[in-house]
Amino acid sequence: MSAYVIGLTGGIGSGKSAASDFLSTKGIDIIDADIVAREVVAPGSECLLAIKNRFGDDVMMADGGLDRKALRDIVFSDEQQKQWLNQLLHPAIRTRILQQLEASRSAYVVLAAPLLLENGLDQYCDRVLVIDIPESLQVARTVKRDNSEPQQVEAIMAAQLNRSQRLQKADDVVVNDGDLDNLHQQLNQLDKNYRLAANRSG
């Protein structure tokens, strides 16, 4: 196992994926909680069967996969259903994340999760790296990227920790309000720091 774990998070539209993509080019293992969340509901999985039994064919695609949008529409407006889904998925996601952390062999490992702090995943991390941008820029970038309405983006932001709460929990902050070169320069320095810290802790 890579003994040193960096938790990578940030609000929607902050550039978490761009940051983890860059660190992966440095040979660092990236464990992406969003990908893990898709894996635990893959066709044939126990979680998908439980979801189908509860919600029926309305949340299933023709190919046997999960219709994530249909499910999201149901749970977003029903707190009880949302709690049921979280109780089903969170333990399965956590188990798989811990297995992947155990299997990692890179100099250090990055656990990338939009809800790293909200879901308590930072307990498995040595440091928390927050990608930070002003909230107005979060909205503008996400609207452009996803072709969504500003109100939708603001609703998602409201379900996440607010910016000041996130920054309070950060060990390291990368401000991503410039171009990719600027982002990469900041991450380059952190990559060096993390390798040194991992060597010392190892």
TrEMBL record:
GO molecular function, one term: ATP binding
SUPFAM superfamilies: P-loop containing nucleoside triphosphate hydrolases
Organism: Idiomarina seosinensis
UniProt function note: Catalyzes the phosphorylation of the 3'-hydroxyl group of dephosphocoenzyme A to form coenzyme A.
Enzyme class: transferase
Residues annotated as binding ATP: G13, S14, G15, K16, S17, A18
Subcellular location: Cytoplasm
Protein's recorded name: Dephospho-CoA kinase
Subcellular location, principal: cytoplasm
GO cellular component: cytoplasm
Keywords, ordered alphabetically: ATP-binding, Coenzyme A biosynthesis, Cytoplasm, Kinase, Nucleotide-binding, Transferase
Gene encoding the protein: coaE
Family: Belongs to the CoaE family.
Listed EC numbers: 2.7.1.24
